[in-house]
Amino acid sequence: MTLIKIPRGWEISENLVTNETDFKNRRKFIKQLGVLGLSTALIGCMDNKQSLNAQSMPKTPFKSPSANLFPATRNEKYTVSREMTKEIVSSRYNNFYEFTTDKDRVWKLAKDYKTRPWTVEITGEVKNKGTFDIDTLLKKLPMEERIYRFRCVEAWAMTVPWTGIPMKELIKFAEPTTKAKYVRFESFNNPDEAPGQKGLSWYKWPYYEGITIEEANNELTLLGTGIYGKEMPMQHGAPIRLIIPWKYGFKSIKSIVKIEFTDEKPKTFWNDLAPKEYGFTANVNPKVPHPRWSQATERLIGSGERVPTKIYNGYEEFVKELYI
């Protein structure tokens, strides 16, 4: 198992520590120069500090060929009364084991991951099979913005504005046959660039998930392509991910590369690993506890407030007919 050292807040990177010999020579040099030399040295230190600050500045965000599609028009039908989570908070608190199990470090490890070129394979029981460039799909299918609650199985929650393609629009594009009863999704597999896939090798990468064709066709189900009016950053699952707001977050698979329509119930990542803890359906339900914690309440990321969990995460009117 690869151990990832998590630096403390007061630590600096080892490559910024001055070599001991250089440090001693520098002190000797300053003594020889006197006051004038010291002033010059201090100016040099300021220049070095400015240079260091310039190196630590964030890089210009990646813009894809589809960048001009954002922001999309907001659909006011899909909104919530709860306050929206601040972007900087939601962008720096993520589950994405392909990079790390540390929620606070995902954004750092994922920020330079290349999401172009990127293709999505559509296969199985469909008429329109093929491997499609992501930008071609984004231009071909309609996108809109929706504000959704997001609920993790770990009992924390956010409220975010997703941009995405209604899943039913992709289904129309794929033209599934009458044999299609389920939809299986598969994420990327690149251990050379995703340290979690290399270090956490006991997991069965790539990540895979599945839902029924009825759930896929529900009006709430979204293929997420952006957030906060911008393209999706990698820590949220760029360039395309699944969003099913009435289910626990592990069902909303990130960074999809394959969508398969099948007549057989697909296996799913967490259900294979721990079937007693993570079911296939995984609907948010305050009355059904996780084996290791209650689901009756949830912690709002950002404020830390504890609030009651809503059945189906507050989307009962949209989905209850699926489970009668």
The string of secondary-structure elements, in order, is HHHEEHEEHEHEHEEEEHEEH
Biggest pleated sheet: 7 strands, mixed
Stretches with pLDDT under 50, minimum 5 residues: 1-58
Radius of gyration: 24 Å
Task: Write down the CATH class of the largest domain.
Answer: Alpha Beta
Distance between the termini: 45 Å
CATH architecture assignment of the largest domain = Alpha-Beta Complex
The fold-level CATH name of the largest domain is: Sulfite Oxidase, Chain A, domain 2
- Beta-strand segment tally: 12
* Percent helix: 10-25%
| Beta fraction | 15-25%
With helices defined by DSSP (H or I, 4 residues minimum), what is the helix count? Answer: 9
Output the structural class. alpha+beta
How many domains comprise the coordinates? 2
Overall pLDDT confidence: 87
What shape does the CA trace take? Answer: globular
- The CATH superfamily label of the largest domain reads Oxidoreductase, molybdopterin-binding domain
3D architecture notes:
The chain has 324 residues and is of the alpha+beta class. The protein has 2 domains: 18-56; 67-323, Alpha-Beta Complex (Sulfite Oxidase, Chain A, domain 2), CATH 3.90.420.10. 25% of the residues lie in helices and 20% in strands. The protein contains 9 helices and 12 strands. The strands form 2 sheets. Strands 3, 4, 7, 8, 9, 11 and 12 form a 7-stranded mixed beta sheet that branches. A 5-stranded mixed beta sheet has the order 2-1-10-5-6. Strand 7 and strand 8 (230-231) form a beta hairpin. 32% of the residues are buried.
